[in-house]
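Reopening this one. Same input as before:
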Amino acid sequence: MHVRALPYRIPTASAIKAAGWKLEIDGDRIPLPEAYPHWDYQTVVTLHRSITVDAQRLRTESGLAADTELAMAVVWTSTGSRLRGTADRRSLGTDGRIELNVQLPGTDLGGTLILDTVLVLAERREGTDRPTAARRAGSVLWSDQVHLRLQGDAPQFPMAVIDFENTNYPNDAAWYLEIGSDLTAATMGSLLLLVNERKPAVAEALKNAGRPRPQDAMMLSVLYADLARIMIQHALQQPEFDDEAVFPDESLGAQLISLFDRLFTGRSIRDVRMQAEQSVNWFSSEIQAAVNMLEGIE
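Same output, byte for byte:
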C-alpha cells in the first residue's frame, strides 16, 4: 500500500466528520450514484455536502495555534474536457460546520467528474514557531475524493431543437445528426444533434433525461441506438478510420475510436467494416445489441 509522508503534522481522521455528497436532480437530493442518469452537455451538475470539523482538536493535533485560519475547498476535474477548477471554498468558522455547494455547467464537463474535498491552511504562517506544523498556504491537512461517471456508452454532444420546415432536412424527420468528416477536428465542434420541434415527444424525452418517464426512457433508448449507428457508420466510411489510426485527444476520430471499442470490444475495424458492407441489416442489429436498446423497458 502506498503511504504518503507529509513534512508536517496532520489531524487524525476522526476529527473530521464528512457526510457523503448528494446529487441534486429536479430539486431532489439523492446519495451520489456511480453514474449520472442520462446526463448530457446541457445538464448543470449540482451537488451538496455537509462537513463538521472538531476545529480545536484538529488544530491541536496538527500543532497549529488556536487562531490559525483554515479553509475547506472543493476542486473539480473533468476527464473528458480535461478542465479543472475550484468549485467552492469556505473558511472554517468557530462552530466547525461547513456546507459545500457545487454547480458545474455541462458544457465544461465530460467523461468522469472527480471531486477532491480538501481542508487546507488558509494563509501562510509567518515566524519560526511550531516547526512541525504546516506553514505554507494551501497545505493539505485532510482530503477525500469521489468520482461521478457522466458518460456511458451513449454519445454526448451539443443539441438544438428547431423546426425542420425551415431547413433542408425532411419536414417529418424526428432528428438529424450533423457530423463532420475531419476526424482530427475537435469533437465538440464536429457534432450537433438537431431535434425537430414538430416531434415534441423527442424534445420532451431529452428534457426529462435526468428523470425519464417510461415513454421518455423508451424514446431515449431508441435515439441513443440510432445515434451510435450513425456515428459508427460514418466512421467506417472514412478511409483513415482503421485499426492503426491514432487521432489527437478530444478529436472526433478519438471519440469514434472510443465508441467503436466500447460497442465492438475485441473486434477489428476491418472486420466490422467488411460485415457492415455485406449486410446493412446485420450492422443495425449489431448496434442495437451493443447498446442494449430497450433494455429494462417493459
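So the earlier flakiness isn't reproducible anymore. For the record, The mean pLDDT is 88.
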